[in-house]
Amino acid sequence: MRISLPCPPHSGNSTVTPLNSRLHTAMAEEELDLEFYDNNSGDVDKEFEEWKQKFEKSYESPEEEAKRKKLWLQTRVMVTEHNRKYQRGMVTYTMGVNQFADLAEGEHPCGCMH
């Protein structure tokens, strides 16, 4: 499930304005399309299939697909946690799920590890 939320408004309570608060203030008028995912929803299998179609993904075996789906789910958790930090002003950029969401850390699109 993808949920779009507006950027939180600047509180104005602080005498020191950190960079991320200034960014939030500058973007307060804009609607940000932050990505949040619920891996416990009944739609996860459907969402994985849609993601595979969007990025033309296919796997050589059911075992490989299960491995890649697990990595994809882990990426969704990481993206959601990071974007919640963005909402709280703890980081200055957002993240999203893209065509590389099924890769292991250190794995490159060519399939090799670096």
From TrEMBL:
Keywords: Protease inhibitor, Thiol protease inhibitor, Vacuole
Presence of keyword Iron-sulfur: no
Main location: other
Localization: Vacuole
InterPro entries associated with the record: Papain-like_cys_pep_sf (IPR038765), Prot_inhib_I29 (IPR013201)
Stretches assigned to the Cathepsin propeptide inhibitor domain: 48-108
One Gene Ontology molecular-function label: cysteine-type endopeptidase inhibitor activity
One GO CC annotation: vacuole
Source organism superkingdom: Eukaryota
Pfam families recorded: Inhibitor_I29 (PF08246)
Name of the featured protein: Cystein proteinase inhibitor protein salarin
Species in which this protein is naturally found: Albula goreensis
